[in-house]
């Protein structure tokens, strides 16, 4: 991964998600002990949408966040956007007719100030240019709109660090290999988490992109973070 160009890395990510799409949701439940279901509820709560709000689930994959948003607000306008068609195909078979959109997070096909909220789950670690992705999310948000980001993050060192390391580097790849048949995709998970920005550095990038009231909470022994912020009116 380290010696790939940006475009090559984006193609690698697309190809990887194409290969694991059918088992992606099951692996999420298994890896997190189904805790991801609670984090997704929390993400949509933090998005503070109401009836008639427009929400973008960016890097939607199979649409778990988008469908949670529809569950919490059945009359909201939800768009699920991703650049891996196979993930959306699996999601469409599972969740039915959400508004699916083929979109690259670095060049969003939406007009300025379209959405009241942009949420993402496990996307930002994968994009090749984090600042550009934030710039695009800022652009498509309405003034007063909210951004909420769920992703893995590097935990601070503590007594549990050796166990977390074993879980990330041994248990998850072995389980991922058995369930999806694509072990390298689940080696990519710890590798991309460790090479990603710290939670504090991600906040700093959000602030640099123009977001205000930026904050984050950690979950699951510090390995997961939910960041949120606003585009002030
Ligand atoms: C780990 S999956 C997350 C799926 C879903 N959001 C969830 O919460 O489970 C990451 C998704 O981000 C998508 N992705 C990565 N880079 C992207 C980009 N530049 N533009 C759009 N989607 C991207 C991948 O195709 C993949 O479906």
Give a nutshell description of this structure.
With 233 residues, this protein is α/β, with parallel strands linked by helices.
Strand content: 15-25%
CATH superfamily: Vaccinia Virus protein VP39
CATH topology: Rossmann fold
Report the order of strands and helices. HHEHEHEEHEHHHEE
Strand order of the largest sheet: 3-2-1-4-5-7-6
- The beta-strand count equals 7
Q: List segments where confidence is low: pLDDT < 50 over at least 5 consecutive residues.
A: none
Shape: globular
Ligands, ions, cofactors: S-adenosylmethionine
User: Rg to the nearest angstrom?
Assistant: 17 Å
Query: Which CATH architecture is right?
Result: 3-Layer(aba) Sandwich
Average pLDDT for all residues: 94
Distance between the termini: 40 Å
User: Helicity range of the residues?
Assistant: 40-55%
Main sheet characteristics: 7 strands, mixed
